[in-house]
Amino acid sequence: MGTPYEKDVVAWAMEQAALLRSGQLSALDIEHIAEEIEDVGKSEERELASRMAVLLAHLLKWQHQPERQGPSWQLTIAEQRRGIQRRLKRTPSLKTRLEDLEWQEDAWGDARGQAAQETGLSDFPEACPWSMEQVLSAEFLPEA
Question: pLDDT tens digits for 112-129?
């Protein structure tokens, strides 16, 4: 076997790809390949969750600090929405996460934490007051 997975994952990955391309299937490190494939999916989910938390946090800040509303927040909100839409277009199976109540609660909890840290406020709702449709709508900005 070539480079051990635990020693150098990049060299290992290149070797595994070469083995696949040359048809040397019996030489593959199947267990680690399976882990890496699963990690790709988890990485996509983390990206979606991170973008959603940033989006929700900015919507909270928009609603709870109207005196600080400005182009920077609007740009961040728009960019997160575009990023989420790109991610969903490239990976349609992630749409089910948006419907998962536990996932929504986690994203909301992360957003509340971010918003609290950035604003010094702590009186945010326990549950997200907006639908996913509103959150992702380019026209939606919550009122104070």
Answer: 999 999 999 999 999 999
